[in-house]
Amino acid sequence: MSRPVRSRGFTLLELLLAFVVFALSFATVLEILSGSMRNTVRAREFTEAALTAQSVMDQVGLEIPLEEGFTASGESGDYRWEIGIFGYESGPDGFSPVELAELTGIELLQVDLRVSWGVPPRDQSSEFSTVRAMLLNREMVGQE
Questions:
Q1: Which residues pair with 116 in a beta bridge?
Q2: Which class for 106: exposed (0-12), middle (13-18), buried (19 or more C-beta within 10 A)?
Q3: 3-class SS at 70?
């Protein structure tokens, strides 16, 4: 009586299939890792842009004059910035900034800041805006 022959090991087809599964899994993991690294770099750039914006906004009223119509630009490391100061148009409740200035002696100014980085065509930018209050000269308040 002959015994059935049992195969030992894997066939070539099984090895090829295992290699294909491994290669696809490895490629997927690499793609996930590279995407994660891109997102980390992008988050770092936006964070540095926000910190640059905060630094420039902190200079308004100190090194950057708080005057309507003032514009300036500069660089901070790899980041370029442009700032403009304009009269504040109106609030959400419909109050008039002119009436506010006449009643309180406070003028509202809108500060717009654009921070950009990178080189074209992959350059990026982010815009920031705030409202600053400025005390008017007391001699001007109440004059008609």
A1: 80, 125
A2: middle
A3: coil
**What pLDDT digit, counting tens, does each position of 78-103 carry?**
999 999 999 888 756 666 777 767 77
pTM: 0.70
User: Are 135 and 105 in contact, with CB atoms under 8 Å apart?
Assistant: yes
Record the tokens describing residue 138, joined without a space.
Answer: 């007391």
Contact 60, 126 (CB under 8 A): no
Name the residue with tokens 């899994």: 25
Largest CA distance in the chain: 123
Phi, psi of 121 (to 5 degrees): -90, 10
Q: Are strands 79-87 and 106-117 parallel, antiparallel or unpaired?
A: antiparallel
